[in-house]
Amino acid sequence: MIFYDLRIGYKCEAEKDAEKKHARGREHEHDHMERDIRSVNEAINGRRSEKCDFYAYAYDATESAVSFAYGYEPKKMARDGAIKKITDALSREFKKAEYSVASFDEITAERFSDLLALMEERDMAPFRSHRVSRMLDMDYFDASSFSVSEETMDEAPLSREEAIVEARRLMCDDSMTEELERIYSDENVHEFFGHPVHYRIVCGHRETGLLMAKLIIRALYTNGRLIGTRLSRIYDIEEGFYDEDTETVFEKSSGASLMIELQGTPGEHGNFASSYEGIINLFSNLIKKTSDYTLFFLVENTEQPGFGPAFCEKINDTVNFIELREGGGSRDEATAYLKKLIGKSKMASLGDEGAEKYLPQGRKTYRPYEVYEAYEAWERDALRERAYKAYRKIELVKPKKKDERSKPYERLQKMVGLTEVKSIIDSIVATSKVDKLREKLGVDCEPKSLHMVFTGNPGSAKTTVARLLGKILRDEGVLESGRFVECGRQDLIAKYVGWTAKAVERKFREAMGGVLFIDEAYSLVDDSHSFGDEAINTIVQQMENMRGKVAVIFAGYPGKMKEFLSKNEGLRSRIAFHVNFPDYTADEMTEILKLLANEREYEMDDEAAQKCHEIFAQAVHQKDFGNGRFARNLLERAVMRQSKRISEMNNAKSLARADLMRLTADDFEITAPMKTVKKNKIGFAVE
Prior knowledge:
By secondary structure, this protein is an alpha/beta fold. The protein is built from 26 helices and 17 strands.
């Protein structure tokens, strides 16, 4: 529904009515006004208690105007028709007056609910048996399973040139400017008939997604493609819920826009596709049902994709979505954007001097989410150092925390082993730098192939390195976004003819500017009766089409990957790098364990380290022993044994911090005997 705060002006023609009103005295005027408004509300709404397509409730009146909170269903009537219903009812109730629209402003559903509450407080409701807002299902803002917020946009016309400038200021990529060109195209009619497309926004910060959606809404409204500017937002969605308020949010968004943030709630959810399966089905059905009159924005966070990939996979086949992506910019552009955010904030008066120091240093390309993080850091410091200066010199508590986003190259270098991997990445970065120097001299440089094969046993850090690789290449300006998209056979092989190619193409679009990681790639051709050949052929085509824009990494066991590549010359010829991840040695496993323990602020004494080395010396001779996962599991069991040991001590309450952080040799123990087997060779070596 579309909601308005409407003010109807009126002019009384009967002198008799005016004389009566004057004779009553000012002290009785308010009581008379309440009775008149109640009769108006009864004339318009009757005493109905069922839902309908039009609501209008007068909540205030003066000697010259009556104010209404009204909403209408755009599927059933137009805005002018809704206003005429109100003025006709006024004319029937008070015949000797002339009426005209003094003002009308679009409002949120929450504001509409507040005005209904004001009407009830003033005893102007047409019925008193229960709250009108509850009867109309307007109290969904306290939903327990998700959060809802709403706002309306500026209705002032936005020119094409202004829209393009704003998109560039937001550091959007070409997908946004291309869509704005389509919205402002002369080929379109400037009238609402329905929504030909909806939007999937891929970004690193929810504020980026919100601003991108607002820009699209203003452009569409300017071009007559939206009935209202209201944007409702559903976020922090809990897994496994069903809440009847969900359907109400979708229902009340008809004629407006609805944004759904797909990362869910913070925390560990395991397999998002299964833990959010009910939500995926519910939201998919509601979007299909309401997509003709409601504009949808699906927002997927690049760092926390949540149930986004599974949800988009399900909905894309029945509703048309265009993907809009955040882009990047230079340090000057990022600084200008940061200062713009400060200038629009409540603390703009504090000035923006020195704001650029909050941006990460040494970057060639900056992402919008990094600008927002810089703004949030500036805001925290500005409160203490500029607004409330008495707190400038106090010592703050600074908890130790990992920064998952900062300095991915340094994180890679600190990883144990992986000499070959580190060398190859250095070569890619060096080649990119030389190409940029050649471009400055006017020398043409073709996009380099970044496609790779990672071979190694489970736990050898293939996935971890692939994630870091995307971020490293982003920081060096080789890739645009550094996005990491992981998939397997179940994500690429479809059930019906022609669907597999579309599924593969969607994954490439999803990974645009980043890394597409295909795990156990050989499983694509395991079943001769599947559509594996279609998947491989489409992958090969997309690898060529998106050369330099997407880095495809195929990963799996060494022997199986060798066989997989031998079956397709086109695929093999497009792979630039073959990277082997050997099993870790006992010395490397011990170093990995020490690093994992240090990250959790545990310390191991020499005796404990020696015992772990002996355990690893046996483990590395077992087939598929788990590599880094084995070390992680060993540490987890040690922490549990240490906790039990400490809790059983008589003087546990008097232990020092060092005692709580120390792991001893007795804490490390394997639960099953190990059988030594002959290790297979790793890599593409042939006997």
